[in-house]
TrEMBL record:
Start-end of Low complexity biased regions: 10-28, 137-148
Region (Disordered): 1-61, 127-157
Superkingdom, taxonomy of origin: Eukaryota
Protein name per its UniProtKB record: IBH1-like N-terminal domain-containing protein
IBH1-like N-terminal domain mapped to chain residues: 62-120
Annotated GO CC locations: nucleus
C-alpha cells in the first residue's frame, strides 16, 4: 500500500511538473509573438497610422514652406501679362500651377496627386484629338456634325436619367468621387481616404497662397509709398 501511494504521489508530481512546464512554454511563446508583432508594427506601420501621418504632414510649417517655394518658382514661369490674356484665363493658369505644385509636394504618393500630374498630358492629347475631329467634321460636311451633336445630347440625357435613378448615398459618393481628382470610379473607402488627404492639402494650399498674397500686397504698398513724392 505504501509503495502504491508513493507511486501515486510521484505520478501526480510529475503531472504537475508537466503542466507547469507546458504553461511556461505557452507563456514564452506568447511573449515571443508579442515581441515579434511589436517589431513588425514598428517596421511596417498600419494603414491607418500611415494615413494619419500623411494627413498631419500638411499641417506642418515645413510643408507649407516647401509648397510655397515650389509655387513661387512655378508662378515665375507663367505669363500673367494682363495685356495678352484675360482675367479668367489668368486665374485658371494660376489655379493649374497651384494644383501642380501641390501634386509635386505630395510626390505622387496619392491617387489625387498622380491624377493632377497626368491631367496636363491628357489635356494636350484631347486638344489634339479635338482639332483632328473638327478638321474631319468640316471636310465631311455639316450633316455629320449635326448627327454627332444630336447623339451627344442623347448620351448626356441618358446619363442624367441614370444618375437620377441612383440612391441618395450613391449619388453623394459619385459627386465626391468627381470632386477628388482620380477618384471618379473608385470604391467608397478609397474615395474617403483620398478626400481626407486632399482636403488637408487644400487647407495648406489656402494658407500658403494667403501668406504669399499678403507678402505681395505688403511689398507693393511699400514700393508705392517709397516712390510717391515727399509732401511738405
Amino acid at each position: 500500500m505504501v509503495s502504491l501511494s508513493k507511486m501515486e504521489q510521484s505520478s501526480s508530481s510529475s503531472a504537475v511538473a508537466a503542466v507547469i512546464s507546458t504553461n511556461a512554454n505557452i507563456n514564452t511563446d506568447r511573449a515571443r509573438r508579442r515581441k515579434k508583432k511589436k517589431s513588425v508594427l514598428q517596421k511596417h506601420p498600419s494603414k491607418e497610422n500611415r494615413n494619419s501621418q500623411s494627413h498631419a504632414k500638411w499641417k506642418t510649417e515645413a510643408q507649407q514652406q516647401i509648397y510655397s517655394s515650389k509655387l513661387i518658382q512655378a508662378l515665375s514661369q507663367v505669363n500673367l501679362n494682363p495685356s495678352t490674356s484675360s482675367a479668367p484665363r489668368q486665374g485658371r493658369a494660376v489655379r493649374e500651377v497651384a494644383d501642380r505644385a501641390l501634386a509635386f509636394a505630395a510626390k505622387g504618393k496619392t491617387r489625387w496627386s498622380r491624377a493632377i500630374l497626368t491631367s496636363r498630358i491628357k489635356l494636350k492629347f484631347r486638344k489634339q484629338q479635338h482639332k483632328r475631329q473638327r478638321l474631319a467634321s468640316t471636310s465631311s460636311g455639316s450633316t455629320t456634325g449635326s448627327r454627332s451633336r444630336s447623339s451627344r445630347k442623347h448620351k448626356v440625357s441618358v446619363l442624367g436619367l441614370k444618375g437620377k435613378g441612383l440612391p441618395a448615398v450613391q449619388r453623394k459618393v459619385s459627386v465626391l468621387g468627381r470632386l477628388v481628382p482620380g477618384c471618379r470610379k473608385q470604391p467608397l473607402p478609397v474615395i474617403l481616404e483620398e478626400a481626407t488627404d486632399y482636403i488637408a492639402a487644400l487647407e495648406m494650399q489656402v494658407k500658403a497662397m494667403s501668406a504669399i498674397a499678403e507678402l505681395l500686397s505688403r511689398s507693393t504698398s511699400e514700393a508705392s509709398s517709397s516712390s510717391s513724392p515727399m509732401t511738405s
